User: What shape does this take?
Amino acid sequence: IPHTAMELLSDYSRQEGGLSGVDYPEPFATLALALARSARRELRIFSPRLDHEVFDNTAMADAMSALARGSRYSSVRILVTDTQPPGAFVRREGSRWEVVGIGTRR
Assistant: This one.
């Protein structure tokens, strides 16, 4: 199989047409939920922190749970860069990190 070179474009100023942002927390939270609900095989979230305004709700937890339980081939992967309180949703459990309380914290 021949090798295919891949490149991750990190300087978006070179991207044709520019890059438009989305207001936060709305409509970002609504769009994130729609994407989570429409995922069929995998969901990947990369966030400095799992922000309460977007991820700490029952609808998002239900969408992630439905995807994860939908097939043995489905997956939900969350990469968080800041695990320090206040408001961190992750905790160390032995050699693993666990997501805690999404959709259940009050």
